[in-house]
Structures
1.
Amino acid sequence: MASKKTGFREDGVMTDLGGWTESDLDALLQDAQRLPAPGARIGFLSKQFLGVPYRTATLAGSAAENERLVVNISGVDCFTFLDYLEAMRRSASHAEFVENLKNVRYRNGVVDYLARNHFFSDWPEHQPEFISDVTAAVGGDSAVSIEKMLNVKADGSYWLAGIALRRRNVTFIPSERFDTKMLAKLQTGDYIGIYTDLAGLDVAHVGVIVKGPFMFYLRHASSAPGKMRVLDDELAHYLADKPGACVYRAK
């Protein structure tokens, strides 16, 4: 097991570690744990994913199919990228990472499609001991809160079959209100969700904030044509034509 990269573990976990081995991850996570701040760990760990391909449909499970825990770091979408980062920053070994992934991706660590955190705002809602919604603190008077009924489209149909509706207040900062004062409140390792006006959804995309010497970057698994990998985009430029953003911070 120490060098296994791809396949099924004895406990049924579907695993694809790409270019890493379990021993590689043990060493990487031990290095990350030497960084005391959660945000610094996330920034360090996210850098290791740069260039990893963007892929869809990497999870296994639906309302009609039994859920399986998937550990696939050979290809990620924007949400699974954050799943892996958050589980890794809590872990000092590959074995801990797999266990923590259950608690990041699922409510109460129960590997079940119905218990999966399908929405970005599920994180602070169900894991307040690990994740804080700091959008209002960053945005101040410019932050906006709107009540949404998650999972139901404007026409009354569901985004996700079998998943209950969730009434939730979503706080975001309109993109046109972002200024240097707000940017100064951001930290490397902050999780950012790109707010959407679409009924039934809180965000349309997620990523990680990386603070450079002269500007802020959005590190994310991009599905844009010609990109299709984990990369850095200049944050202000990326937000320019988006409705706004939500900001969460690891505790």
2.
Amino acid sequence: MAAAAAPTFRQLAAGSGYTCGLDAAGVISCWGTNGLGQLGDDSRESHATPRPIFGARRYRQIAGGGGHVCAVGLNDRAYCWGWNGTGQLGDGTRADRLRPTAVLGGLTFRRLAAGAYHTCGIAMDDRMYCWGHNKQGQLGDATAEPFRLQPVAVTGGHLFRVVTAGLSHTCGIDLDARAFCWGHGKSGELGNGALQIWRTPRAVSGGHLFRDISAGLAAQSGDYHFTCAAATDNRAYCWGGNIDGQLGDGTTTRRLQPALVKGGLRLATVRAGMGYACGVTTAGAAWCWGRDDAAQLGNGGPLTGSASRSTPVAVSGGLTFQAIRTGWFHACALTTDDRAYCWGSGMLGNGTETGSSSPVPVGGG
């Protein structure tokens, strides 16, 4: 029997041990671990190659969190599935869902972002709404309510075009390219020069204008969460905890304001993972920095135990990419011909359960 053709995707989403891809027809397929239902196929069975999620609905945007996934349907409604212990699925319950479930509230969305325990979305009127865990103020609703089981408005009246959600903080870029963050700030991950919780959006210091932003989380216990962003001049900046060199500035020093990523790279996009980050240059080359104990930097080194890198290293293979997504211990990227490649730990979509320190192609079903 002939081997199945490798799938093509328009978008990717990655989380804790799983990845999902959205193809040109609006079909979402997922692979990896599935103990929480994060693969969305109405089971808890893990898959080493892509499998379509449950149902005939089609989608136009996808976002991966820790153990849950959310997507915007062609009807502009939000749907989520997977782990729901903190209400991050937005369906009014804290029950896990093995198949896509509608987010309550009747809102229509442009874009969603899924964090470890919460979810946020930019509505069609450019206002932001969040739901799920809120003990650190990450929903931005100016309250200390621990959980929100359906969307609540982020306060401040800001209009956003980009949103990202981490473990316990959230950031967005407004229509004027200014970055704002809120939630847990004791790692400096809010970038406003302070070490405290903010329950409403606060401007990131430095006066930079950004096109892309990504909230990362700590790979070690302690206040080491961080944020990275690509500026409109294609320079990358990171701030927050830096124990693994995840800020890419050549140090392991915590930064309370944006610090320039070293290497002179011109990055069109950047994504923060668990103690590491990756970016794609304007020429399509992928670079990563930070923690590398599970080969998540993709530079062809050992599968386990590599030392962290405090400055960017090139992802091996010489592929040309258009987008990249970082999970907790793995990363995946799309080439310019819409093929997906993954590296790091776990099931990478190539039919095996063995990780790789260099990009491997995601296989057919």
3.
Amino acid sequence: MKRAIVLLVLIIACAAGFLITKGIFPSLFVSDESMEPELTSGSLMTIKRLNPEDIKVGDIIVYHVPKTMREYYNYPAVVSHKVIE
């Protein structure tokens, strides 16, 4: 029984990894403590597309940084922030 549970967990983890890498299940790892206490470093965020009108205070948003800003300010390609106003 214990082996069956371990095998099931491994299958689920492999399926999730496949979906993440193929972009079917978009996600992003939290790389530092800036999102605490809501999300800790190493947490996995799942991402869904929303209309800008549907975003509200308290939501965590993920967006792409334009290439010129990445190069000038040395920003990463994707950034996440909590909406505060």
4.
Amino acid sequence: MTTLRVRELTAEAFAAYGRTIAVPARGEDASGPGWRWWAEMVSLPTDGRNYGVGYLALSGSPLRFDWAERHMRSVEVVVPLRGECLLYVGPAERPEEPAAIPELERFEVFRLRPGTGVAMDPGVWHGAPLSEGDSSAMVLLLEGTGANDVTVVRFEDDPVDVIV
């Protein structure tokens, strides 16, 4: 059985999988009474399709996963709205073989807190975030990704446990 320890989300730690979304360290682009604005923090490339916004409700469950998926043509964005979630990711290798999943020991698990998020590069292995309690997240994917650009691999006989 594989066991993975949760890592704190930083831009450097997540760089191999995509980009983080958080309040930038630089000054804002505009501001006014009661608001500050940072424009275009993360660019999301498209292939001509629109992005769809999804809502993901999470409830406390065992910190274990036995499946992963990847999208070869879509960036996927996950931003917690309420509560924390744990996102597992694996390297985007062997794009010519979409079902070629890396060794489970090579996956990593990141803690996503409300106000932060990630934009996963195409080909990055991942699954629905895990949660220790009730939480929710916004998910952005190019329209039709779930029907036309998803490869799922299941490994029920060799699940991965996550240590907080």
